[in-house]
Amino acid sequence: MATGRSVLEYTFYLLVAVSIYIAIGAPGLPEGLLQLHSSNPETSTPLSQTLLDSLVHPNSSLHCPPHPYTIHLFSPSSPLIIYIENFLSASERAHLLALSAAHWQPATIVSPHDGSTEIHDPAVRNSSKALLTRDPTVQCIERRALALQGWPCHTFLERLWAQRYGPGGHYSHHFDWGAASKSARRVSSFMVYVDANCTGGGTNFPRLEQPRGGKWERFLEGEEEGVEGTTFRAVAGNAVFWMNFDAEGRGYRETIHAGMPVRSGTKVGLNVWSWYQAGYEPEVQGEREL
Predict the structure, then answer these.
(1) How far apart are CA 285 and CA 265, in angstroms?
(2) Is 148 helix (H, G, I), strand (E, B) or coil?
(3) Which of 26, 41, 112, 203 stands 20 to 30 A from 73 (CA)?
(4) What does the alpha-carbon distance between residue 247 and residue 59 come to, in Å, rounded to a whole number?
């Protein structure tokens, strides 16, 4: 795991050095360098056409049935980290599995050699991914993710991707962001467990201290030799949410994380990434209220 971590951290510093203002440190975020600008030139950061095309906002006129979930505050700040029980219902999980079934493809990472090309490297990331069609169920999940964050201004979602891990599947330690600024960044992440018929496969944060006892025993893996920090157990329907940056656009180093190896069975996750773009105002019909 140390090798995967060093490669990805090297990629991060390379991207910062050349000031490419798009977050390309995670699979599923398309590259592209055709520059557009937001509507506020004083606070704007160049926005690639392909990233622009990937930003979505759920249809506010869509009726989404009430969906109760339970929040457990893991870290109140610096960074904010929340564990969410029942973020997805059983029917939503079944729908996402059916929706992704015909679309799996090898998951990719950004090449450390040029900082832009997407490559398949199972030594770093051994999984499959599937882009989800934005049908009403998916848009209701999008709305739930934005509502949990309070519908922050100038914040949108990137298209949702499902991730599938079989035996031996893993993703070495990485950040969900590559380069960012105060006015443009992948501001937050959800790791949602769609299916967890597996052993192993938790989400490890090596720089987070693991709490002892109490309710967290239900949600965390026990201590394991050679594994540092906190590992959230993969539980179908539950999710982990965290903020990637502070208000000034400084990334939280504590958010480096890994998808731990699946020892048996299959894990399917859902990436929900929120992107902040200062001054950018796409046309959105209706209101943003549930």
Answers:
(1) 43
(2) helix
(3) 26
(4) 28
What are the CB-based long-range contacts (under 8 Å, 24+) for 221-227? Answer: 221/260, 227/260
267: tokens are 């894990």
CB-facing half-sphere around the CA of 175: CA atoms within 13 A? 28
What value does the CA radius of gyration of the chain take, rounded to a whole number of Å? 18
The structure tokens listed for 19 are: 């000031």
Can you name the residues that pair with 203 across neighbouring β-strands?
232, 259
Distances (CA, A) of 151 to 94, 155, 274: 27, 8, 11
CA 20 from centroid of its chain's CA atoms: 20
> What pLDDT, in 10s, does the model give residues 225-277?
899 999 999 999 999 999 999 988 899 999 999 999 999 999 999 999 999 99
165 beta partners: 267
Where are the alpha helices (H) located in 20-173, listed in sequence order? 49-54, 90-100, 136-148
- Residue where the block lists tokens 């982990």: 240
Residue 12 parent element (H or E): helix 2-18
pLDDT one-digit tens code per residue, 265-275: 999 999 999 99
Closest CA to 137 of 91, 180, 176, 175: 91
